């Protein structure tokens, strides 16, 4: 690797980690704003999303600049391609955090529920851990940690799936709280999508480290089996 390319890779690494840190912070602040009915914190999250969008564009331009001028190969090429994809996932995580913050503002004027309709706190714990661990795996190229992120997604999916029945039941018990319960339904969906993006980052870490594309693996294995049959 040339000295210039090495510096460019380090630059990309620093940029993606700075963006990831800001996204992780926004997710935590957004859910805190929901739980505490903190309008000012929610507005901070919405404002921070503007910086996330700007950083995402800057990082994409830096990746394209690196590809055009350095023509990296092997691991370096995989790294730049993966950062391009991770960049997009981080920007989407930022969007979902902003959406949660907007829900927090809408909830601020509503009376607090005696009991949340589903296990929101556990869901938040899993999702924030997934984002954090996916970024940690990116820093250290830790494939075991990346695989752990993907496994943790199963629990988030379970809570999100059970959420619908729980919210519908709560609406029947307290129809006057229906608007507020709809907001909590939306928050669960946003968290589930953040978890999906964390899984995408974990897959890209595995691609960086091992060079294997993991998307649609079941479909590809099925096609291979049909060809060999």
Key terms for this structure?
229 residues; mainly alpha; Methane Monooxygenase Hydroxylase, Chain G, domain 1; 86% helix; 0% strand; elongated
Could you describe the 3D structure shown?
This protein is mostly helical. It has a single domain, classed as Methane Monooxygenase Hydroxylase, Chain G, domain 1. 86% of the residues lie in helices and 0% in strands. α1 packs antiparallel against α2 (39-70) and α2 (39-70) packs antiparallel against α3. It starts with a helix and ends with a helix.
End-to-end span in angstroms? 44 Å
Question: In percent, how much strand structure appears in the residues?
Answer: under 5%
The CATH topology annotation reads as Methane Monooxygenase Hydroxylase, Chain G, domain 1
CATH top level is Mainly Alpha
């Amino acid at each position: 690797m040339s000295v210039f390319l090495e510096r460019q890779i380090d630059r990309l690494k620093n940029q993606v980690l700075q963006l990831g840190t800001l996204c992780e912070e926004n997710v935590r602040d957004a859910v805190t704003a929901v739980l505490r009915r903190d309008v000012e914190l929610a507005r901070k999250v919405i404002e921070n999303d503007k910086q996330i969008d700007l950083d995402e564009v800057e990082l994409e331009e830096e990746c394209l600049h690196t590809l055009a001028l350095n023509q990296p190969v092997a691991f370096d090429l995989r790294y730049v391609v993966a950062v391009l994809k991770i960049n997009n996932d981080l920007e989407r995580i930022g969007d979902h955090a902003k959406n949660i913050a907007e829900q927090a503002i809408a909830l601020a004027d509503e009376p607090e529920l005696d009991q949340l309709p589903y296990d929101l706190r556990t869901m938040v714990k899993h999702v924030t851990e997934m984002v954090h661990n996916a970024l940690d795996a990116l820093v250290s190229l830790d494939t075991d940690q990346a695989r752990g992120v993907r496994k943790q997604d199963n629990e988030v999916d379970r809570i999100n799936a059970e959420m619908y029945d729980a919210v519908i039941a709560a609406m029947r018990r307290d129809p006057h709280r229906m608007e507020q319960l709809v907001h909590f339904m939306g928050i669960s969906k946003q968290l589930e999508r953040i978890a999906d993006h964390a899984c995408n980052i974990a897959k890209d870490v595995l691609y960086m480290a091992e060079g294997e594309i993991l998307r649609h693996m079941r479909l590809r294995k099925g096609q291979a089996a049909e060809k060999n049959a």
